[in-house]
Design goal:
The chain contains 12 helices and 11 strands. The protein has helices spanning 13-22, 57-63, 76-86, 103-108, 149-158, 182-189, 199-203, 211-223, 242-253, 286-292, 300-311, 330-338, and strands at residues 2-6, 26-31, 44-47, 67-70, 92-98, 162-168, 170-172, 194-198, 208-210, 230-233, 258-262. The radius of gyration is 21 Å and the shape is globular. The protein starts with a strand and ends with a helix.
Length: 341
């Protein structure tokens, strides 16, 4: 099968390419040429800006991909350009979306108050407010202000092209630009005696996914006709509590400290968590497992170990950008710990 990847040079894309090649498919990658990626020699690379995608339609027609996987459709215009470009060329488009489409995301960030039942299914209610990052003081790296995966999904699933949507969790692994393990590893490497969590935070459960497993799921969806007109979740099978997750990471790295869970009343009066941890944010994985036969190719402990190994040799240049919102600074943490000695 001929498959074209739009984007594909940063975090998740290269593992997707490797998975597709291993499955025996012919892969081309359209990208800007600004990221050095060592693709296998039989991968065809096409250079260009995604804003000029439609202008290259004749070139894509000569390439004649059967499936197009778009890793970087962030907003409605990206999706419209995608579908207009490949209508009459490709048979199907796979668009990479996010768990942030759900109403539970707005509850988590305090924009709505009614907690949504979990695990979230692919049919759980979506956000009622569009453009989730417009009012945030800071946005994730490379996310445009008009980012909106709900609109991307609407365009893809209503176009003349057949579509597939993959909603991703919080993805971790080598080359993770969000350094999702950084804050925990820093504390463990600093030999902190404990990591203090407020009790609702300790119980909070969110869906994470290891990058190689996520890539495998995307490759399955791209190459399986049963995925046509379907929406899928992919995530680690275990949705650990935050306390369990930190404890597991600590065990892998040999940390001698422990997680201390305390009531909110023990925290300083001015301390206010920016998220509503009463809203869990994890998903049901039944559909992709039953319909596409998906299962993890890398088990959780190995996935965390690989991520830790990479993280320890690739620290962020501006670590303050990657602080987890519910972790305390050391001074406050020490003051709380002193009450339990």
């Amino acid at each position: 099968m001929k498959i074209l990847i739009i984007g594909g040079t940063n975090f998740i894309g290269p593992p997707v390419v490797r998975q597709l090649i291993a499955m025996g498919h012919e892969v081309s990658v359209f990208h800007r040429g600004k990221t050095t990626t060592n693709f296998p020699s039989d991968v065809h690379e096409i250079l260009g800006e995604r804003s000029h995608l439609l202008e290259m339609k004749s070139k894509f027609k000569q390439l004649s991909p059967q499936v197009v996987v778009n890793m970087i459709a962030y907003n409605e215009q990206d999706a419209l350009t995608l579908t207009k470009t490949f209508e009459g060329i490709a048979q199907r488009v796979v668009a990479i979306s996010s768990m942030d489409v759900y109403r539970a995301y707005d509850v988590l960030w305090g924009k709505e108050s009614d907690v949504v039942p979990v695990p979230l299914t692919e049919d759980s209610p979506l956000r009622q407010q569009l453009y989730p990052y417009r009012e945030m003081p800071s946005r994730p790296i490379a996310v445009p202000i008009d980012y909106e995966k709900i609109l991307v999904e609407r365009v893809v699933m209503s176009s003349n092209l057949r579509g597939t949507i993959i909603r991703l969790p919080m993805v971790y692994g080598s080359r993770d630009v969000l350094y999702r393990l950084y804050s925990y590893l820093q504390r463990m490497d600093d030999n902190r005696p404990a990591i203090v969590l407020e009790d609702s935070t300790a119980r909070w459960r969110g869906s994470y996914g290891y990058v190689e497993n996520v890539a495998y799921a995307i490759a399955l969806a791209a190459t399986n006709e049963r995925a046509t007109n379907r929406i899928y979740h992919v995530a680690d099978v275990e949705a650990l509590t935050e306390a369990q997750r930190i404890t597991k990471i600590g065990k892998i790295v040999g940390w001698q400290g422990k997680v201390i869970i305390v009531p909110k009343s023990e925290f300083p009066s001015e301390w206010k968590l920016p998220v509503n941890t009463e809203q869990n944010w994890f998903v049901d994985l039944t559909r992709i497992r039953q319909e596409l036969g998906y299962k993890e190719i890398v088990p959780l402990d190995e996935a965390l170990q690989r991520t830790i190994d990479w993280q320890r040799t690739h620290s962020p240049q501006e670590p303050q950008q990657f602080a987890v919102p519910w972790l305390l600074d050391y001074a406050i943490e020490d003051a709380i710990l002193s009450k339990f000695r």
